[in-house]
Amino acid sequence: NAGVMQNPRHLVRRRGQEARLRCSPMKGHSHVYWYRQLPEEGLKFMVYLQKENIIDESGMPKERFSAEFPKEGPSILRIQQVVRGDSAAYFCASSPQGFYTDTQYFGPGTRLTVL
Amino acid sequence: AQKVTQAQTEISVVEKEDVTLDCVYETRDTTYYLFWYKQPPSGELVFLIRRNSFDEQNEISGRYSWNFQKSTSSFNFTITASQVVDSAVYFCALRLNTGNQFYFGTGTSLTVIP
User: Fold this and answer.
1) A-chain residues near B99 (CB < 8 A)
2) Are residues B106 and A89, on separate chains, in Cβ contact within 8 Å?
3) Which residues of chain B have a CB within 8 Å of the CB of A111?
4) Cα–Cα distances in angstroms (integers) from residue B26 to residues A5, A22, A89, B74, B103, in the given order
5) Yes or no, beta carbons of B102 and A35 under 8 Å apart
6) Beta strands at B10-14 and B24-26: parallel, antiparallel or unpaired
């Protein structure tokens, strides 16, 4: 029973390029969350998605960042025109129902480095 | 506003010692959930425990135990007879009865010295 999968595990981009981070939730989970972990900080919530819907994007920067969770395929976090400050670990989590009691299970993270 | 504080940034202990990781949370909600996650050097986040605000019973799982004190808004985590494999960053997190996000503390980096 595979856990949450994220790829790539490491991503290097130059300033101005685009970064695409992928997340496949655990089998049977239809709720996906993205978090960002800056160096030596805790995780900060970015966005919560269900299939084909963004439910809560209150933690997403207003510009350059977008997320989707299509009917088929993984959830994608997209960062356009990356800047050095985007360098961080991006974690995806999934839960089966999204209810407040749900435990979120985390993937291994994607470490983005912007040169 | 919600907040989780892990005042201990780094802790080092010698193998077989007991160690307690502190977590203090702030919320005005009466129903909420508390979590501990472990982040080993490999980077993934491993779920350890979930506790709801109505259940103040302490919990023990092997060498791990958790002490939930609503009166002091604390949810401390104790590892007894620590082992080198316990070396990791440990995060405490809060989730409310409403909303979708977790509020994480900044983590405590535990090093167990052989």
Assistant:
1) 56, 100
2) no
3) 43
4) 32, 33, 26, 9, 10
5) yes
6) unpaired
Q: Which residues pair with B72 in a beta bridge?
A: none
CB burial of residue B101 (10 Å; 0-12, 13-18, 19+): buried
Q: Cβ of A43 and B104 within 8 Å?
A: yes
Residue B112 forms beta bridges with which residues? B13
In chain B, which residues have their Cβ closer than 8 Å to the Cβ of A107? 44
Q: In the structure encoding, which two tokens stand for residue A93, read together?
A: 């989590």
Residues B94/B1, Cβ–Cβ less than 8 Å: no
| Whole-number Å distance between alpha carbons of B49 and B60 | 10
Can you give the pLDDT of all 115 residues of chain A as single tens digits?
568 999 999 999 999 999 999 999 998 888 999 999 987 777 899 999 998 899 989 899 989 999 999 988 999 999 999 999 999 999 999 988 766 557 788 899 999 999 9
DSSP A96: S
Residue A87 amino acid letter? S
Query: Please, are residues B113 and B12 in contact by the beta-carbon 8 Å criterion?
Result: yes
